[in-house]
Design goal:
Number of helices: 4
Number of domains: 1
Strand order of the largest sheet: 1-2
Radius of gyration: 17 Å
Number of strands: 2
Structural class: mainly alpha
Order of helices and strands: HEEHHH
Shape: globular
Length: 103
């Protein structure tokens, strides 16, 4: 897709390079100490679409859940639940790899 103007943002995958060089981010607070970088989350989903479509779908669900929970001050709880789920999945995958190596 081409840009109509020289001042327009890229409308293709080069947008992520542009975002990397920005001096700001767009975030949503999930607790007093944490903010979800929405643009980074979108880039993660964009990358996962080709590599692991199911992971991309789960990321979209997580992002939606965090948005909804943030409206009632519960985004940190959802964030923690997804972090625990991700850690458990990573542990499961690691254990399966170890067991496969032993057999």
């Amino acid at each position: 897709m081409t840009n109509e103007s020289e001042n327009a943002l890229p409308m293709d995958s080069s947008i992520w390079k542009h975002i990397e060089h920005m001096d700001m981010s767009i975030g949503i607070p999930v607790s007093d100490a944490k903010t979800l970088d929405i643009l980074a989350a979108l880039e993660d989903i964009y990358t996962a679409i080709d590599e692991d479509p199911e992971d991309a779908r789960q990321c979209v669900i997580a992002l939606a859940a965090i948005f909804v929970a943030s409206t009632v001050g519960k985004a940190d709880i959802i964030w923690q639940e997804y972090a625990i789920r991700e850690a458990m999945q990573t542990l499961d995958e690691s254990l399966k790899e170890i067991l496969d190596e032993e057999t």
